Amino acid sequence: MIKVKNINDFSVDTEDYDLVLKIRQEADIAVARQMVKDFAKKNGFSLADVTKIATVVSELSRNIQRYAKKGYICARKKHGKDGNVLLEVLAYDNGPGIKDVELAVTGGYTTSQRSLGLGLSGVRRLMDTFKIISEEGKGTIVITEIRRRTF
Amino acid sequence: MSDKVVPIIKLYDYLIVPIQIELDDITVEKLQMQLLNEISAKEARGIILDVSMVDVIDSYISYVLSETAAMAKAMGCHTVICKIQPNVALTLAQMGIKLENVYTANSLESALEILNQLD
Predict the structure, then answer these.
(1) What CATH number has the domain bearing residue A93?
(2) Considering only alpha carbons, which residue of chain A is nearest residue B24?
């Protein structure tokens, strides 16, 4: 069981999740993508949503690997109000944090050399809910959900 | 000899590249290198990347593909990306990602037609 350090008083317990993946090297990005993709498929998400989820995991795990060097991708199936089935992805790291979160999430901004700067804004657009908590010097948490569609 | 990650088929002055492997971050860089080397070696005027088997194209993969097309352009070679999967197209558009420097086609025939009409 890994209990995560607080970031802006927000804490994460990996015990709450069905899937917990450590991201440490570039190769882990594709692995995380595949594993969460399989998890989504197994839980009856449509191919369109599975593709979105895989893309989201790819973006978030790349951010972890690139900026924080180490972190976790967690996923779980949840039930929302109205009995909806949701898939939640949580990306967590104890990296440098994001100085201007609004700017980072808006899109077209990057602190990297070879990058479109569209990762976080892309995640926000693809998913149904998006929450980001970041503290400079402490780390970053992204929590995002997608509802299972019936079509 | 540099790393070959995909098979490349020469057709006239063009190279047809079926991408049937998972495009992880390391592989996509190797792909870029392989493409540039083959464009140079075979003096290709056009390349067709068949991505019908690619399930996920995220912002970094998009970046590298666009970058590769720009590099190919510098070598006098056009790039056509062929057969993007519907769900991948959906995801790219929703994320607001545009593939730069590339033509797109829905079939190999259309891709060849596009290349034939260029210069």
Answers:
(1) 3.30.565.10
(2) A30
